[in-house]
Amino acid sequence: MLDQTLSNHAEWDGHDPYYGSPLMRSRQEYLRKIDFLDEDALASQDLGLLWAENANSIPAIFWMVYETLKQPVQLSQALLEIKDSQPGCSHHAAPPFDVESVCNIPILQSMYAETLRLYTSLFSLRSAIHGDFTLDGFTIPKNELIAVDSRVTAMDKSIWNTRADEGEEEGRLSLDHFWAERFLVYPKDPTSGPLRGGLLNHQQATPTSSAHIESNTPRFTTEGLAGAWTPYGGGSRQCPGRNFAKQEIVVAFALLFSKFEIELVDADKRGTVKPDLKYYGLGTLPPKTKTPFRIRRRVQGLLEPARAEAT
After folding, report:
1. Which of 198, 169, 199, 194 is nearest to 183 (CA)?
2. Between the ranges 182-191, 259-268, 301-310, where is the mean pLDDT highest?
3. Total-model pTM
4. Closest among 251, 202, 204 to 226, alpha carbons compared
5. What ranges make up the beta strands (E) of the chain?
6. How does residue 310 score in pLDDT terms, banded at 50, 70 and 90?
7. pLDDT tens, residue by residue, 21-63
8. 184, containing H or E segment
9. For the chain, how many helices (H) and strands (E)?
10. Measured distance CA(307)–CA(300) in Å, rounded
11. Phi, psi (rounded to 5 degrees) for 306
């Protein structure tokens, strides 16, 4: 029956009338070749994919929008960059910008990375398959499961740049707060970049182009952060959908602000939204409470960010 379904439903306008996305059809064709997967197992695979596509990206989009709305200077910068990626694109196109260009905008990449650093808590499970080993005075038995919490290193002051002066443990840009430019390296600013001790950031990521140096054009980087920035896990078990997730989050952010003017309500309470820690260790933490906001469709094109005025 499944074979007949696959053969009778050709793609139309880029989508399959039965399976929807061509991805779902291709997955079914591939998984059907595995003998021990029955129709219930195939359905479970599809459900797992749908969960993976939405469970983490949707709260990540919320946090990226929420935190950026609290930083109007960085929001204006991001909107101008998005607008510059729109030449030749119709305002009515979907989306009204070049996706690849938008996903490579340094400030948007930094906002995305900072969102996942601050609001993702992921337990990566590993086991010692080659025998017992000792770590910091603790012996881990062979085949014992180990849960590695991504948030521990994401909040480690000895790793991350907080703009602390020499000898200081805590800088003025705390790891408990969202810094939109944390992952940006400016050629003329040796203290910029995500790593504590900005010179290393500068040496690793400064573009060699003299034009970039002269204009002080920032560059996005995660170099030197292996084991510190791990919202998708690490090693061979790293999330295979991480590139899709990045595109989903960044494009959703750009699309929202291309089509709508958005502003938070109750400016004096903007810092009160906290992540719901009952989901700790399961991925991107959702907000604990509802967040009031105003939204209206843009009249034409990508404009300046909305002002926080009562309506």
Report:
1. 194
2. 182-191
3. 0.81
4. 204
5. 120-127, 133-135, 138-140, 145-149, 184-185, 219-220, 260-264, 282-284, 293-297
6. very low
7. 788 888 888 888 988 888 899 888 888 888 888 889 999 999 9
8. strand 184-185
9. 11, 9
10. 17
11. -65, 145
